[in-house]
Amino acid sequence: RLCDFVLLRVQYCCTEFHKMAGEESVSESVSKLSLKEGIPKVQNGQRNVLVTSALPYVNNVPHLGNLIGAVLSADVYSRYLRQRSVNCLFICGTDEYGTATETKAQLENVTPKQICDHYHRIHADIYTWFDIKFDHFGRTSTKQQTEICQDIFWKVYKNGFIQEDQIEQLFCEKDQRFLADRFVFGTCPTCGYEDARGDQCENCGRMLNPSELIRPICSVCKSTPVSRSSKHLFLDLGQLQPSLEEWVAKTSVSGSWNSNAISMTNTWLRDGLKSRCITRDLKWGTPVPLQGFEDKVFYVWFDAPIGYVSITAALTPEWKEWWQSPDKVELVQFMGKDNVPFHSIVFPSTLLATKEDWTMVHHLSTTEYLNYETGKFSKTRGVGVFGNDAQSTGIGVEVWRYYLLVNRPEVADTVFTWDDFQGKNNNELLSNVGNYVNRTMSFVTKFFGKKLCVVELDEDDAAFVSDVNTDLKKYIGLMDAVQLKSALRLAMSISQRGNVYIQKNEPWELVKTDRARAGSVVSVAVHVAYLLGILLEPFLGGQFSNKIYKMLGVASRPDVNLIPDELFLGLGANHEVGDAELLFYRIDDEKIAALRLQFSGAQSESSGIHAAEQKAAATAGLSSAFHLDLRVGRLVEITECEGSDTLYVGKVDVGEESGPRALVAGLRGIYSKEELLNRLVVVVCNLQPASFAGITSQAMLLTAEKKKDLKLLSVPEDSAVGSLVGPGTFASSEDKTLLDRKGFQNAAKQLRVGNENTIVFDKQYVLTVASSGVAIGSGGVAEGGKIK
């Protein structure tokens, strides 16, 4: 069977792929990513924790944001539980049903099952490289999924929580298919965002039905779909709302849900729950067993969360011990913020509707979004680092894990930047942890022949150990509360304490005058290095910590990685350490520059263009698309315009030899004169002169606006007047073509407020000051705002 699988993989990449038989499946032994010997069982009288990571959709190669949002965070927590001797089961798998798989299979001229087999393996390989320690990594296209999903449906149906109704659906006449929500894009009716999906607007967060979109289009063929009627089944959330509200009120407190999860859940409840359609007109999915609906399958709202249960059932026949033991098992679930309604509303409502005892979520751990430095990750545009890219960089997995976790977007969106990545490696991992462990090992090797000495604590040592124990206690508290980023920072601070301890005691000098004291200091430092290996293992992974355990000669200890309540000082005199090994390596500027270019979208695997040519081509393409001459200006004169309640007149210096330009700006009532005078602004310098209230204006100030919130774009304070402002790598846009009002509107329509208050051109290039590379800000206007 393994040979069959290898053959399947080879065939997928060949032109003969379409000739493969559609029914052949990947071997169960290959499809499982079970990294732990034995299957954890629920233990009476012990703490049992069931950990799940949001199921990644099989067709998508996960990028760094996907990894930190669910899988990596769940891995950290489950590792921690095991290291505290807590009985834990960590479950995940690929979500494989739906229109996306059907459509991709059609495009590739293969079966949906073959698509899923191929991409499931890609996911599994990525998570293996990232040192993710699942108990089981499964999939939803299984017989267990069909059996359990249909069984739950029948119970919900018989309890009276399923409704039948006709709905209008969007149908693509060109592709001859009903369009799933995520395959329809259009303008959000609430906020006007032009790229809203048919199920949810990413800009304002409103949940949508495709029929609500303004000017909908099919995302596959870009044609305009038509409306057709079809009979479907609905989960009656309205009838379930009272019992759900009672459960949420209790569980969100006892389980210490984070504020984002509580806020999103309460918003749904406040607006009143409505019946949600749980069926779709597809072939690839869990069949609906109800008469009259045999040609339909269950929709992701209903089907996907049940995947947690079926994946567990594929691992062990005793799955009910985990999923139907609410008095014995805690369920902790990790996900990005866009998945909260599935886990706090729909899935719990479904389980409540069965009127059976289910293990329901205890703690919800959610994250905001991790974005890439030029905007959003895009596999098709080659922008950003995806899971299968990280390995090719030659940078160790522990560095990637650390960077993602120390930048975990727990309360707000965060941004991956290569400069920050370099700094975190060089200044934190290498200079802090790597330096501490390396110095400690060098001392015990050089001065004491690789053997520890008797530990005798003086008053200062006792204070140091006490401080470490205080940090250790806080670390345990933070990890128990699933505050992962804060716990990681605390572990790093113990390494800093260790460096200070060594520097203060100077064992390289002390060994000359008091060898016993020097030996005690070095031995204490070794034990702290051991503790660091243990505390950082959940975050940096087992590959990293095993290097430390091997160096310290403790790898064979049966309890080698258990997290203690206090600093362990018991290795004993004459304990022999191993050979030193470098944990981290410096990343230089040249490598960072090459990686930034490689993942900027300027690199094309199919073109064969060399790096310099690619960069030039990308810049030239951007130059032809961006037609605004933007510069940093300073308002050097500002007065109120007579006869107008809205206009100011003044002058703005943009660094020209001819002097400041005359300006008329409609900012009265928004900014005072004092707020404007000497302010740095972004100035459009290639507009035709225009007359306002009889005064000619030779420039325009760029503003951002959303929902009547209008603000001037913010400019970094140290920016030089006259500096060019442009998107991405495009450093100079001195376009001499003068634009009229309509020309400006056309040129500016691809500018929008992005995440982190940035201004983004063409959804990916951040507007920056060319001389410094520092981003222009939106002045506080929310993401999706227009630039005027």
Commentary on this structure:
By secondary structure, this protein is an alpha+beta fold. Helix content is 40%, strand content 18%. Strands 17, 18, 19, 20, 23, 26, 27, 28 and 29 form a 9-stranded antiparallel beta sheet that branches. A 5-stranded parallel beta sheet has the order 3-2-1-13-14, with helices on both faces. α4 (99-108) crosses α5, α14 (418-448) packs antiparallel against α18 (515-540) and α15 (459-480) runs antiparallel to α16 (484-505). The longest helix is centred in the middle third of the chain and has 31 residues, at 418-448. Mean pLDDT is 87; it is low at 1-36, 603-624 and 731-735.
Give a short synopsis of this structure:
The chain is an alpha+beta fold. It is built from 23 helices and 30 strands. The termini are far apart.
Average pLDDT confidence is 87
Q: Strand content of the residues, in percent?
A: 15-25%
Query: Helix/strand/pairing class, anyone?
Result: alpha+beta
Q: The biggest beta sheet, please?
A: 9 strands, antiparallel
Distance between the termini: 61 Å
SS field, number of helical segments: 23
Number of strands: 30
Attribute tags:
flat; 788 residues; five-stranded parallel β-sheet; disordered N terminus; nine-stranded antiparallel β-sheet; alpha+beta
